[in-house]
Amino acid sequence: MIPPGCARALATAGLLGLLVCAVAAAPVDENTVRAIGADLRCVVCQSLSVADSPSETANQMRGIIRERLAAGDTPEQVKAYFVDKYGLWILLAPPRQGFNLLVWIVPFAGLAAGLVVLALLVRRWTRRPAGGATAPGVAVDEAMRARIHREMNEMNR
Amino acid sequence: MSFPRHAGRWLIPLAVLPVLILLAYGFRTNPRDVPSPLIGKPAAPFSLRAFDGESLSLEALRGRVVVVNFWASWCVPSCYEEAPALERGWLAYKDRGVALIGVNIQDKEEPAKKFLAEFGHTFPNAPDPAGRVSVDYGVYGVPETFFIDRAGRIRFKHVGAITDEVLKRNVDALLAEPA
Questions:
Q1: How many CB atoms lie within 10 A of CB A28?
Q2: What is the pLDDT of residues A85-142, one digit of tens each?
Q3: Judging by beta carbons within 10 Å of its beta carbon (0-12, 13-18, 19+), is residue A59 exposed, middle or buried?
Q4: CA distance A81 to chain B (A)
């Protein structure tokens, strides 16, 4: 069947359109189809991309991607077509602009804040009490030292 | 820097609160309830071959109020629930400048024809074998029903089984607009 882009080219440019059409009809790179599909949400699935879903709908969507690429659309134009029809919802990753930036910034800001809190806590836990140079805890005197020696010797026997 | 000594006592519950509120909100909303960006935009033209062999084109219906219903024979129970209402609506409005088109998506011909025979649909129905029309209309599930005004713009979209009441209300609203 004639891709819609070809029909358009033929209608507007006649013979020249046919030439454009023949050039555009070059085989579509399946890697490009996959790359576009990976960014699009399969509309009947929950959080699965068009590239990954085995559903019939995703299969048809891949067909439409292929068809649009064959008609001379760039990958951006193909994605824009789906966004036009479904809204930004169709993109698996929200674009990094406007309100959507929050989704990109908040997790990293949260992580950074968490690290700061952790650093402060660790510092507090490991800080030696003010003034004292020796470690807190039981002071080891001579009697204790002797007892430790004795008991270790017993263990080694 | 000093860290408030008993900060954990109130900081932790306080931090949990917004998360709980967000989850309480998030789990109550339907993930499929996505507003269509197509409302108010011109309806994408399409030409389909109906099950009875007739050719079916949106362009030919310009000047009429058009209702486009997307359905599938495997869509249980919604498509089965709404089928009688669609036929009733068609019989009530077909002579009043309203067209109803059924677009059968993600389906096989045999069960689709069985569905049509079961409900005795008399309005035109056509399969959309490559899914082009359903993507053009941003359809993400069945059933979905679109209401197109006389100027060819999509005005309302109904997700899920349609009822006599919803059909009547939307069609009447579009019929009431000046031609």
A1: 16
A2: 999 889 998 888 888 888 889 999 999 999 999 999 999 988 866 555 555 556 678 8
A3: middle
A4: 9
Number of domains in chain B: 1
What is the Cα–Cα distance from B112 to B155, expressed in whole angstroms?
A: 28
Q: Under a CB-based contact definition with an 8 Å cutoff, are residues B42 and B75 in contact?
A: no
B8 burial via Cβ count (<10 Å: 0-12, 13-18, 19+): exposed
d(CA B97, CA B150): 9
Rounded CA-CA distance B119/B80 in Å is 9
Tokens 């219906």 found at: B61
B interface with A, Cβ–Cβ < 8 A, is 1, 3, 31, 34-38, 106, 130-132, 134-141
Please give the ipTM for the structure prediction: 0.80
- What are the structure tokens assigned to A37, written together? 């599909």
Chain B positions in Cβ-Cβ contact with residue A109 (cut-off 8 Å):
none
pTM of the entire predicted model: 0.72
**Closest residue in chain A to residue B37, using alpha carbons only:** A87
Domain that holds residue B117: 34-176
Cα(A63)–Cα(A90) distance, integer angstroms: 16
Using a CB–CB cut-off of 8 Å, the residues of A that contact B are 43-44, 46, 56-57, 60-61, 63-64, 82-87, 89, 120-121, 124
Neighboring chain B residues of A66 at a CB cutoff of 8 Å: none
Examine residue B83 and state whether it is found in any structural domain, yes or no: yes
Q: What is the CATH number of the domain that holds B135?
A: 3.40.30.10
Q: Helix, strand or coil for residue A106?
A: helix
Distance (Å, whole) CA A5 – CA A110: 47
d(CA A70, CA A64): 10
Distance from CA of B106 to the nearest CA of A (A): 7
Residue A140's SS3 state is coil
Q: Which residues of B touch A46 (CB under 8 A)?
A: 31
Q: Pick from A67, A66, A50: which is nearest to A58 by CA?
A: A50
Q: Is B145:B158 a contact under the CB 8 Å cutoff?
A: yes
